[in-house]
TrEMBL record:
Pathway: Isoprenoid biosynthesis; isopentenyl diphosphate biosynthesis via DXP pathway; isopentenyl diphosphate from 1-deoxy-D-xylulose 5-phosphate: step 2/6. The record marks 15, 22 as: Transition state stabilizer. NCBIfam families: ispD. The gene is ispD. GO terms for molecular function: 2-C-methyl-D-erythritol 4-phosphate cytidylyltransferase activity. Belongs to the IspD/TarI cytidylyltransferase family. IspD subfamily. It catalyses: 2-C-methyl-D-erythritol 4-phosphate + CTP + H(+) = 4-CDP-2-C-methyl-D-erythritol + diphosphate. Catalyzes the formation of 4-diphosphocytidyl-2-C-methyl-D-erythritol from CTP and 2-C-methyl-D-erythritol 4-phosphate (MEP). This is 2-C-methyl-D-erythritol 4-phosphate cytidylyltransferase. It comes from Sporosarcina gallistercoris. Coiled coil: none annotated. The keyword Phosphoprotein does not apply.
Amino acid sequence: MEYTVMMPAAGSGTRMGAGHNKLFLELEGKPILARTLAVFQQDPWCTGIILAVKETERTTIETIIQQEQITKINALPEGGTERQHSVKACLAAHQTGGIVLVHDAARPFIKQDVIHELVMSASRHGGAVAGVKVKDTMKYVKDGIVEETADRERLWIIQTPQAFRYEILEESSRKAEDESFLGTDEAMLAEHAGYEVRIVESTYDNIKMTTPEDLAYGGYLLKKRLE
Ligand code: C5P
């Protein structure tokens, strides 16, 4: 099966505190961005990569793409102020339909078998997201007081990739824009538009590099994989 991946890479990564885009931080000698791009470059099902970038970082990103011999890049649209806007810019740059995946450039540890399950599920059902079951007890808290304990059996931690038939993501994104609805992931936009979204069980190590601790854990994960 085939798919195109849309990768928002236009964030500022303030929680990482690097003073620049966290995607340029290195994991075992290569930028995080290069590590994530390589996963899709190496996946035979992936036919194209669309990367949303900040205008000021375009040259640096083009250099990484060249150095790492990432040949599947279809477009480098300019990202927006919110992640959702960066994804919208990717959608506008890709109008050929088929199955599209949205994947955070900051998640370099995604496994190919999970990607393929997502593509198959989206092709069959319309939309599917990667997730893992919650391990801890979860509670709703307001003003420092526990309101209620959530039913852990029904709670999942949602990651990317998030896979959709192109028309579904495009319509969901357009509806969200029209209604000024801001979601924290693409599935939320599809849910808002009335579409069913399936879960594909992923792995706990598909972490998003967000804070400095993630960098330390990411370095450990990568070393283990390269051994
Ligand atoms: O900030 P966070 O880690 O949640 O961002 C997830 C992904 O979305 C990152 O790869 C980041 O570069 C991207 N992003 C973007 N445009 C924004 C905000 C985030 O492309 N305005």
